[in-house]
Amino acid sequence: MAQEFHLKLITERAGGGDPIVRERQLPGPELSIGRAADSGIVLTDLTIDPQHAKMRFSGPGRITLESVSGRPFLVGGRPVQRADIDVASRPQVEFASYRLAFEPGPDGGAVVTVTHAEHESHATPKVFSLQSKVFGRRKMAWVFGSGIFVICLLIPLLFAGLLSQSKIHPDQQWSTGPLSKSHAFLETDCKSCHAKSFVAVRDESCKSCHQASHDPAAQAKVLAKARDGGSPYRPTLIFDHADPKKLSQSAPLPDGFGAKVTTIVQRTLGHPTDRCASCHIEHTKVTPPAKGGDPKAPLADKPKMVVVNDCESCHSKLKTRLGKTELIDTPDWNRHPAFRPLIMTSAEGVKPTFQRMALTGAPQERNGLIFPHRMHLDPLGGVAKQAIGLGAARGYGAALECESCHRPDATGRSFQPIQMEKDCGSCHSLAYARVGSELRLYPHGEVEKTMMIAGGGSMGGSNRVRPGTARPTPLPGTAPPSAVSGSPFRPGGACFDCHTITWTPEGRPSVQAVKLTTSYMPRGAFDHATPEHGGPGQSKAGGYKCADCHKAAVSDRTSDVLVPDIAKCNACHGQPKTKTAAASDGECATCHSFHAPGKATPKPGHPPLETLRWSQITAGKAPG
Known about the structure:
Blueprint: E1 4-11, E2 20-27, E3 30-34, E4 41-42, E5 53-59, E6 62-67, E7 73-75, E8 78-80, E9 82-86, E10 92-95, E11 98-104, E12 110-116, H1 137-158, H2 203-210, H3 216-228, H4 244-250, H5 257-268, H6 276-279, E13 280-281, E14 304-305, H7 311-315, H8 318-321, E15 342-346, E16 353-356, H9 373-377, H10 382-389, H11 402-405, H12 420-424, E17 431-435, E18 438-441, H13 447-453, H14 481-485, E19 501-503, E20 509-511, H15 546-549, H16 566-570, H17 614-618
């Protein structure tokens, strides 16, 4: 009998009691996992891609899970993109807030139990729950609520005549101050943030307008909510730094006995110090206004920012609080762990697959391109001679350098994508014939069309000419293009030297996809535009040259990962400031940001995103 998946979906009841269990059979051998409605196993968490992963039977009692979106999942607490599991060992696999438990099923199949773990990082202890007999929150709410009603509303109303000169406004006694300008439009809509009475503002309220997402539809929904709510500004969208529960566990208690006691009491009473509102404080008290100023004006454009814990306080002894974490304790820059760049292990499929690897093992990436940097950068080689002659029209006119092909993008932080026609076409011509004064070119990247031009199934032969020159032109109707140009997929052909080509039993070529990495360390904000970092156009400013960090001149394979190790960065970062390290202070925020992985913390003086009004964005006048 064919192997099948027996799926169990467990849903907790909102009012407690026995959970709801739904069961159904799904035929094998393969099943999709994702947020899309047509997935075999539908997981509705927004952090899960519509087509996130797939699983299939790979043998008796064995299942292979593989990510199709490029984003990992957890097996045994470790993030992976592919895993082979033995059903008999009853393993568990985690996708965001969902847990999939496997166990053997009948006839060699598998039973998959799906449970949804609600991450309630700010849950109130049971001693203060609604069911508690001593400190029941319902009784406490009535007692304190009645007292506040009497003191703050009833008494002022009864003695309004006696206190008329005091100008008491009972409805304003609940607020400790005005809202910031960014949130001033919510002045009369308390429930937008205070969703529950007598409960501190929860992160869910903040994320409803500020939560970033890799899903464009989810991000558009968040922005639409802020706009429809009346916000005159575009809110800043942020990613969670880590799982809220792990953040709470990893945060140490503050220094000082009194501060420790205060923090413990806050956490016990449901006011933990790891909420959004712990660092971004609203209703701040107004300082005495300047002469002629508005006494009701908010303190600042943004909520007051309070640093509860800096990076070092959490990451210096992280393993003592999170025993299963894979992160290495990093008390300062000089003890920063070695770089583990994200290496492309396969360029095949819809999305390439990546894996973090240490540079000490000389990792090789599989990007599908054949390109020897050494040959192209040799100032006395044949490529240099071609660049001097053929490349003059393209602005080369000399031996190739890094900036000949790697051109900075508009920001200067990174580089424009490499384009064959623009960056390689001067020497590697795609021309196969001439019609009058017009050159006919193979359509780069379109294998089927190239095969049709080259003669369909006739893939043999070669008639390559010197790069940069047109091939002989046949008279109309005398010969097909393949008779002139030969096969571009055979040795000597236009495609052969740069692409990995395999052949099917039917004699048809298959060209491996080329996908070049744009960022080897997406969680580190390296900025090539910084003069001290050098790069194209920056070396004259006293910084490094490309070759000082990237050993391209000795690389014979494009699979070489030319990322420098951390020792190169140590020359400036973490060391006393020198002439070449004036802007390097060794702080974590130089390369990392709490809410935006891959970006540095914005420097003071940069215009905040909140200053951009909706009209500017919709008119296309604002970046991003």
